[in-house]
């Protein structure tokens, strides 16, 4: 078993989703505690669902590789892919609190889609074969991005 595929950590990705949720809740002129709580909760739920679905997909389309690398293969690939959200959350924070722009939705959507597609690329670096490793996660990322945009607009 490859040591790199056994290690995964979702603390930072969950924190990134949480930051996106809180910044998104801060978009109204008079944000309330309920709005912040709902924004954080929606972000964490979406993160959990996205991590679960991406893990199932990566493991499902790479059964042979998962058997070789061990049961943590999918989680490790998803964990590594989600770290590519870091530049987007930094840009979202800078544009919101330094420039005063209202562009968090753009950065959150780009981060979610990019991280999902990168998950497949991480699997390919470990030996996975086929475009399905990038196309399917990218579709999942696009769907998650769309769900994110719809959910955030529902905040009170």
Shape: elongated
Tell me the helix content: over 70%
Structural class: mainly alpha
How many helices does DSSP assign? Answer: 8
Could you report the average pLDDT, rounded to the nearest whole number? 88
Radius of gyration: 16 Å
User: Cα distance, first to last residue?
Assistant: 48 Å
- Profile the largest sheet: none
The helix-strand sequence is HHHHHHHH
Strand portion: under 5%
Low-confidence regions: none
Total strand count, please?
0
Secondary-structure blueprint of this entry?
Layout: H1 3-6, H2 11-25, H3 33-61, H4 63-69, H5 73-82, H6 86-97, H7 104-125, H8 132-153
Describe this structure as you would to a colleague.
By secondary structure, the chain is an all-alpha fold. 78% of the residues lie in helices and 0% in strands. The chain contains eight helices and no strands. Helix 2 (11-25) packs parallel to helix 6 (86-97), helix 3 (33-61) runs antiparallel to helix 8 and helix 5 crosses helix 7 (104-125). The model has no long low-confidence stretch (mean pLDDT 88).
List its salient traits.
156 residues, 8 helices, 0% strand, mainly alpha
Quick structural gist:
The chain has helices spanning 3-6, 11-25, 33-61, 63-69, 73-82, 86-97, 104-125, 132-153.
């Amino acid at each position: 078993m490859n040591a790199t595929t056994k290690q995964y950590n979702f603390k930072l990705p969950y924190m990134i989703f949480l930051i996106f949720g809180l910044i998104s809740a801060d978009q109204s002129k008079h944000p309330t505690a309920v709005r912040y709580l709902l924004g954080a909760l929606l972000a964490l739920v979406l993160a959990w669902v996205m991590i679960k679905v991406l893990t199932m997909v990566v493991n499902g389309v790479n059964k042979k590789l998962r058997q070789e690398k061990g049961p943590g293969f999918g989680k490790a690939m998803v964990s590594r892919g989600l770290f590519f959200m870091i530049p987007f959350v930094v840009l979202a924070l800078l544009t919101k609190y330094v420039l005063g722009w209202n562009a968090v939705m753009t950065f959150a959507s780009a981060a979610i889609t990019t991280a999902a597609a990168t998950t497949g690329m991480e699997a390919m670096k470990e030996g996975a074969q086929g475009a399905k490793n990038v196309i399917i996660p990218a579709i999942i990322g696009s769907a998650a991005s769309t769900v994110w945009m719809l959910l955030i607009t529902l905040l009170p």
